[in-house]
Amino acid sequence: MKTIRFGIIGCGLMGREFASAAARWCHFNQMPAKPVITAICNRSEKPFAWFTENFPGIELVTHDYKELLASDQVDAVYIALPHHMHREVYIAAIEAGKHLMGEKPFGIDRKDNEAINKTITENPDVFVRCVSQFPFFPAVQQIGRMIDSGELGRIISVQSGFLHSSDMDTDKPINWKRMVAYNGAYGVMGDLGMHACHVPLRAGWQPKNVRAILSNIVTQRYQAKGSTTKVPCETWDNATLLIDTQDPKTKETFPWMMRTYRMAPGEKNSWFVEILGTKSSVRFDTRNPKQLEYLKYEGGQQIWQSIQTGYDTAYPTITGPIFEFGFTDAILQMWAAFIGELTTGSVPHRFAGCVTPQEVTQSHKIFDAALQSHKDSSVVSI
87: how many CB neighbours lie within 10 A of its CB? Predict the structure, then answer.
């Protein structure tokens, strides 16, 4: 099996999740290549010990991302940094010839995203994708097959979203996600929006205009844990978007409602999608990870059925199909998609691939329109 040597730039939560996925690579039945962590980079030394204790293949530990990118022991990188650093570090990685898996939103704003895209175009031999793990849940893979088969009929409406309650605690100190300088003007949309966009954009549905309502609910937070000083929270907590969307196959339009909330009472980390069609309808929520709800119109009573999806994955593993699937499994499948497509140039089917740079650009257009829409209380064309 081919080995792809990875460097991780940003050794926080998601950097550790990738490393853990790499350690589980034997979980797959068949893969054309495997990742090996050979280099790590982080500003703080705190996470280094966990990586070096668990991954003996690490040859380079550094605070300087340029040193990592210059290493001939690195073929590809995973970059998990705050949004304001995306342009600088993503461009440097691509120009260094390192294949890139990057965190969303691929630039703090549309201008930075365009600069990253220009570099991608100038370096066609570098493979670049964006993270979004939730569509790799088996139920969503099944929804993708239904979309491709035309089983849903004409699309009536779509809802998608990502709901957190992580900021419901008003005593929680401020972090970079509540600061425009680091997170950007998109606020919650830049942080969570690509997850909510993934399935509709992968389906090929084309957003035409947006009406958005953005909410900054907690306007001040403590400067640090134990501090008595409060500072402004500058970014949007919650975003509700109504998007007029066209199905290019039928040329018919339908409403797509997208919600990205950091203040969603009762939620932990819930990703959802609902598609209503003239022939069949489907809905899924990660709160019930095995359950795909399905309604087929056959005359008579309209009854939502519950399908237990089990462990029916895009990339086969040793786990039996009757067992449960979870967050870390979705991370593992997403990385299989990245490494599989990097190695072979293809994916098993359309919904078994990672987010492309073109799809990220579409998300930026949506978020830009949403900012203008909220500002003017207007419908803004995309």
Answer: 20
Give the domain 2-130 fold: Rossmann fold (3.40.50)
Whether CATH 3.30.9.10 fits 134-323+353-381: no
Residues 183 and 322: beta-carbon distance below 8 Å: no
Full 3-state SS string of 161-219: EEEECCCCCCCCCCCHHHCHHHHCCCCHHHHHHHHHHHHHHHCCCEEEEEEEEEECCCC
309 conformational bin, left if phi > 0, alpha if psi -120 to 50, beta if neither: alpha
The letter for the amino acid at 326 is G
Dihedral sign for Cα atoms in the order 160, 13, 264, 295? positive
Q: What is the Cα–Cα distance from 105 to 354, expressed in whole angstroms?
A: 14
Return the closest-CA partner of residue 78 out of 124, 161, 19. Answer: 19
pLDDT at 8: 98
pLDDT of residue 109: 98
Contact between 69 and 77 under an 8 Å Cβ cutoff? The reply is yes
The band of 226, judged by pLDDT with boundaries at 50, 70 and 90, is confident
pTM of the model: 0.96
d(CA 279, CA 266): 33
Helix or strand holding residue 357 (H, E): helix 357-376
Of 300, 302, 271, give the one whose Cα is nearest residue 284.
Answer: 271
Q: Where are the domains of the chain?
A: 2-130, 134-323+353-381
- 365 and 117 in contact (C-beta within 8 Å)? no
Residue 185, φ and ψ in degrees, nearest 5:
-70, -20
